Amino acid sequence: MSQFFQIHPENPQARLVKQAAQVIREGGVIAYPTDCGYSLGCHIGDKAALEKIRTIRRLDDKHNFTLVCRDLSEISTYARFDNSLYRLLKHHTPGPYTFIFNATSEVPRRLMHPKRKTIGIRVPDNKIVQALLEELGEPIMSASLILPGETDPMMDPYDIRDTLQHQLDLVIDGGFCGMQPTTVIAMITEAVEVLRVGAGDPTPFE
């Protein structure tokens, strides 16, 4: 049976944020709000928790997982990019984008695309996530909470609890947090490519 925390979207309660971070550190899988729907998250180094997310989502080994990061300095630990891309990122983070980069050696191999050695990176504009990342001091390994056979992320934390309460360790209720998925931008080569148009404006990357 999963725990259920109601965390204020504008003023996250420090006590609950600290408890949520501890659940992640101890190998738990959580459902948490971002600026583009709810996501599943776990500790970056926890193989068993990652496999639990694969099972919930029915993902194969070709799925590009996402590291949810606090800021640009944290991104640079896990992703390779040059100064021109840095400037683009600086203007569009935090925000409703997922960026695909060539991964550095700091990224566990099981999180990368197996052939391309790439990793997705997110900096959500959501105060609960930012508080959680600050408390953790490292990224959250993440995947959108889209159930098998569905195309949109789950939006209602009570539905999430009812549906997945025996598979998750914690559901964070952060209220409504948007319906559109992120805009996905590939920054693997010098030619920046928009792979999916979602909540973020793709124009600066075209």
Provide a compact summary of the structure.
This protein has about 210 residues and is an alpha/beta fold.
Keywords:
single chain; eleven-stranded mixed β-sheet; 11 strands; Sua5-like_dom; transferase; 206 residues; DHBP synthase; SUA5_domain; alpha/beta; L-threonylcarbamoyladenylate synthase; EC 2.7.7.87
Name given to the CATH architecture = Alpha-Beta Complex
- Morphology call: globular
Low-confidence stretches: none
> What's the CATH H-level homologous superfamily?
DHBP synthase
Write up what this structure looks like.
Residues 14-200 form the YrdC-like domain. Helix content is 28%, strand content 23%. The protein is built from six helices and eleven strands. The chain has helices spanning 14-25, 47-57, 72-78, 83-92, 127-136, 157-164, and strands at residues 3-6, 30-33, 38-43, 66-68, 79-80, 97-103, 118-122, 140-144, 170-173, 183-186, 193-196. Strands 1, 2, 3, 4, 5, 6, 7, 8, 9, 10 and 11 form an eleven-stranded mixed beta sheet that branches. Strand 10 and strand 11 form a beta hairpin. Helix 1 packs across helix 5 (127-136). The longest helix has 12 residues, at 14-25. It is globular and about 45 Å long. The mean pLDDT is 93.
